[in-house]
Amino acid sequence: MIDKFIVEFDKGLRTLFAPALSSRPHPGKNLDEVTLSDEQKQHALGLMRVNHCGEVCAQALYQGQALTARDPAAREALKEAAHEEVEHLAWTEQRIRELGGRTSVLNPLWYGGSLAIGVAAGLLGDRWNLGFLEETEHQVGAHLDSHLQSLPEEDGKSRAIVTQMRDDELRHADMAHALGAARLPLPVRQGMKLSSRLMTAASYRI
Ligand SMILES: [Fe+2]
Ligand SMILES: [Fe+2]
Questions:
Q1: What is the pLDDT of residue 1?
Q2: Using CA atoms, how far apart are residues 113 and 105, in angstroms rounded to an integer?
Q3: Which site among 50, 68, 115, 195 is 20 to 30 Å from 109 CA-CA?
Q4: Gap from CA of 84 to ligand 2 centroid (Å)
Q5: Angle, nearest 10°, between helix axes 126-150 and 38-68?
Q6: 165 within domain boundaries
């Protein structure tokens, strides 16, 4: 158990402080960089910072859940999805750099909170654990759709990343569903929406 915690602690530090790597090619990597107005750039940057922060939270959630999941099939599926989340982290991180910005200073805070939520969800048992995951991925998918409405039309590079992430998140939701996710009660779903709204409003700016 102690070994497990050391491994996970190390993962946490890497999520927060080391550059993430992607095995798949970065979406939009073959697209040319276009000139964006200052306003467009700042807006794209804010949205990509929100997405990066969301991916930091995804790392923590998956980590917390994988620590506590009982069913080996669920644990394996969580690990595989977590690997794709690392790629999302790498893509958003690089895009933020290309746009000339930096990641949110609040990331460690959200990471800690998400880890605690992930562990708690895992302790409730696999059906609730997966239910929480399915709902999270659905909400993130919807959120990414709204970013596709809002990102500058010209910013093909950011759009390609967000599109691929959206597709991956919806696949993660389907995976959780197929593994027997329970449907979360409405107040829990609403609470999750509220907390992600707080997170997005803050990390858009800082
Ligand atoms: Fe993701
Ligand atoms: Fe996901």
A1: 67
A2: 15
A3: 68
A4: 7
A5: 170
A6: yes
169 is in an annotated binding site: yes
Is residue 104 situated within a structural domain? yes
Q: Which domain holds residue 113?
A: 36-205
| Residues whose CB falls within 8 Å of the CB of residue 81, separated by 6 or more in sequence, listed in order | 62, 172, 175
> Residue 13: enclosing H or E segment and its boundaries?
helix 2-17
CATH code at position 104: 1.20.1260.10
Instruction: Give me ligand 2 centre to Cα 35, in Å.
Output: 31
The residue type found at 162 is V
Contact between residue 111 and residue 57 where contact means Cβ atoms under 8 Å apart: yes
pLDDT digits (tens, 9 = 90+) for 139-192: 999 999 999 999 999 999 999 999 999 999 999 999 999 989 999 989 889 998
The pLDDT confidence band at residue 19, using thresholds 50, 70 and 90, is: confident
Reading phi first (left if > 0) and then psi (alpha if -120 to 50, else beta), residue 35 is in: beta
